[in-house]
Amino acid sequence: MGLKLDSPIVVSACTLSEKIDNIVKMEDNGAGAVILFSLFEEQIRKEEAAVKFVLSKTTNSFAEASEYFPDLDDYNVGTDEYLENIRLAKERVHIPVIGSLNGITNEGWIDYSKQMEQAGADGIEVNIFFIPGDMSMSSSEVEHRYLNIIDNIRQSVKIPIAVKLNPYFSAMGNMSLRMKKAGADALVLFNRFYQPDFDINEMIIKTDLNYSESNEIRLPLLWIGLLYGKVNLSLAATTGVQSAVEVVKYILAGADVVMTASSLYKNGIPYLKTMNKELQDWMYMMGFDDIDSFQGNMSQQKISDPTAYQRSNYIKILEGAK
Ligand SMILES: Cc1cc2nc3c(=O)[nH]c(=O)nc-3n(C[C@H](O)[C@H](O)[C@H](O)COP(=O)(O)O)c2cc1C
After folding, report:
1. How does pLDDT run across 214-253, given as a tens digit for each residue?
2. Does residue 164 line the site of ligand 1, with CB under 6 A?
3. Is the pLDDT of residue 15 over 80?
C-alpha cells in the first residue's frame, strides 16, 4: 500500500480501536498500524433513513424522530463519531490509521470512504462481507459486485485501498488480478466468515463469537503463498495469529503485514510487544536482518518444490496416513 511501517504486526479491525486510548496503547506496544473497527453499511443506511424521516416531517417531527432514533443505539458509534475517531487518532498517534467500511452494495454508503480520507485516514479497508445464498446469483455477478465496489471507492479517494475478502471465489488468482485492475492496492486474506452453530436443546442458531485458534491460519497461508510474487498487490494476513510463530509463517508465505485481533482480546493489547520481541528473537536466531530477507521464502514462487502447494502434496499427505 506504499505505507512504511515499523513493524509488520498490525491490529485487525475490531472493537478495541473504538477507544482512542487503546489506539495509543497499540502504538506504544509496537503495532505497525491499526485498522479501525468497521463502519457498517446497515448503520449508515439507518442514519440516512432517520435524517430523511425527520426532514420529510413538517409537524411533530421531534416526537416521531425521537421514537425512531433509539434504534440507532444498537450500533457502536454513529458516522460522525467514527470520522471524529479518525481525526482524534491521527492527532494522538504516528502509526498509519486505516478506516474500515463493511458492506455489500454499490450505492451511497461507500461515499464515506471520501469522508474517511478527509478525516485523515491513511487508507481504507473495505470488508465485503457477503454470503451469496441467493440461488439465482451467478459467480460472475458476485465477482462484479466486488469489482464495482472497489472501482467506485477508487473513483472517490486517492489513499490506498485494501480489500478484505472471504475465501470462496472459484478463481482467487484471477479475481486478485481483476481487483488490482479495479483499483485495489492490497488484499486482506481472509475474513473470518460468519459460520453458524446450533444449540440443539434450544433449537436455535447460536450467534456467539469464538476467538480464533492457530490452526486457522492454513487457508490464508495457502493463498498468500500462492499469490506472492504473482500479483502486484500488498498482501495482509488475517486469522489465527496467536503468537510470533504464526506471524513468521505468514511472512514466509509472502505477507507484507500480519494482522491480529483475537490474540489481543485473549492477552491484552501489551501482547503486541511480546509478539514483536518474539519475532525479533526468531529473526536474530535465523540470521535475518530485516523482513525482506525472509518474506515469501516459503511461497510457491520461491520454494524448491512448487508442487507442495498443489494436488501432489495432497496425495502425499494421504499416503502418510497409511
Ligand atoms: C471482537 C471482534 C470484532 C471485530 N470487528 C470487526 C470489524 O468491525 N470489521 C472487520 O472487518 N472485522 C472485524 N473483526 C474480524 C477481525 O478483524 C479479524 O479479521 C478476525 O477476527 C480474524 O483475525 P484473528 O484470528 O486475529 O481474530 C472482529 C473480530 C473480533 C474478534
Report:
1. 999 999 999 999 999 999 999 999 999 999 999 999 999 9
2. yes
3. yes
Q: 162 in ligand 1 pocket by Cβ < 6 Å?
A: no
Cβ atoms of 132 and 194 within 8 Å: the answer is no
Measured CA to CA, the distance from residue 187 to residue 129 in angstroms comes to 14
Residue 123: phi and psi, rounded to 5, are: -175, 170
Burial-class residue 288 by CB neighbours within 10 Å (0-12, 13-18, 19+).
middle
Distance (Å) from CA 191 to ligand 1 centroid? 8
The reported pLDDT for the residue numbered 210 is 87
Q: Is 22 close to ligand 1, i.e. is its CB under 6 Å away?
A: no
| pTM metric for this prediction | 0.91
Strand extents, DSSP E, 56-130: 97-102, 123-127
CB 17 within 8 A of CB 136: no
- DSSP track, 129-142: ------TT--HHHH
Binning pLDDT at 50, 70 and 90, where does residue 67 land? very low
* Cβ neighbourhood burial of 246 (10 Å; 0-12, 13-18, 19+): buried
